[in-house]
Amino acid sequence: MHQDAPAIVKPAFNRLAMSQRLPFLVALLLSALGRFQAAEPTAARDLDWETVARWSAPYRGWHYRPEHVLPAEPNIPGYQQFRNADCPCVYQLPGQPDKWFMSFIAFDGQGYNSFVAESTNLVQWTQPRLAMGFGPPGEFDFGGCVIGAFLYESYDVKAPRLLKRREGKYWTLYGCYPRQGGYELRPGYEGVAWSDDGLTWHRARNAPILSVQDPDCGAWEKDCIYQPWLVEYRGRFFDFYNAANGGTEQTGLAFSTDLLHWLRYPANPVIRNREGGYDAQFASDPKVFRDDDHWTMFYFGVGRGGAHIMAAFSRDLVHWTADAEPLYKAGGNPSGLDQQYAHKVSLVYNAKNDTFYLYYCACGSKGRGIGLITSKPL
Q: Which of 359, 360, 352, 356 is nearest to 375 (CA)?
């Protein structure tokens, strides 16, 4: 899934620079954790399997479409060399209730660019164009940017995926790589970007928000940091992200009060590999939503011969219990569309037909593109 490459150290964000702001970050973490725990003193840390099964039940029994909704060759005007559509994330913009946008990435042999397409029915996606390209040479995001961790108005699982303005701008976290010339050349980092229109995105900070050189970087994430997912809750920000140590990936958590400065949760990772399970090698790409009285995380696991769509649950956003059984297994589509991998999801609820649309990277007989499964037949 991810290609190994040696780590490099960038002087623009070395340990010295981090040590100078460490006292601020420690204070930030203590404040965030203290206020959060005070707000939810009775949060249960462990969930019984009966509860996990009950909370998983609404996200089973999917109906598939036999074709990609964004194909392996998306034929983006001016960027026809970019192929292998991946990492979908659907959102809406204020004042456009009948239109949806989907960010996605594609690869040109050198690195990733992020693109955006649009739809009026959540099935046909048109007008793909560039959203965020390569960073400047020598910088932490020169190898490409993967947007799709947007600041939403609401993180309720059935709420519209409406972008929220903060300080007059829209915001996203993004995954990125410092080098071009291959597929996800290590190490990976995370940055933060802003937009005036929700379509074209610009770097908001000239250093990564998470780096393998950070003093609080754990052994589980020392080789590469991948894709973030942003949640705002009670005035604080949570970054759920996957990272690698060698050939395994797990999911961790970082905290912020301003989107620009982050500190990791000391007990990371919050979603771990399970020996012999469907997430034995990877537990990656988390997407977190408020779901009635709890939080639901959709992530993908790699194990038992494929990549599968998984779920985990929490009452407090910090302590998680993962369901051992996938919500959807690779190879579920009889067309062969996802016979190899079913992963990297974006979940959207359409109130007009009371249907969940789950977009995912489907790899199989028709290459790597964006697939769609729905909770009801369309």
A: 356
Residue 231 DSSP label = E
pLDDT tens-digit readout, 190-246 = 999 999 999 999 999 999 999 999 999 999 999 999 999 999 999 999 999 999 999
This prediction's pTM: 0.90
Q: Where are the domains of the chain?
A: 11-374
Return d(Cα 284, Cα 275) in angstroms, integer: 15
In the beta sheet, which residues pair with residue 322? Answer: 312
Select from 186, 111, 115 the least CA-distant residue to 148.
115
Fold of the domain built from segment(s) 11-374: Tachylectin-2; Chain A (2.115.10)
Q: Are 102 and 90 in contact (CB under 8 A)?
A: yes
Question: Quick one: how far is CA 260 from the chain centroid?
Answer: 18
Q: Per-residue pLDDT tens for 49-59? A: 999 999 999 99
Q: What angle do CA 133, 119, 291 make, to 5 degrees?
A: 90
CB atoms within 10 A of CB 156: 13
Quick: pLDDT tens for 127-137: 999 999 999 99
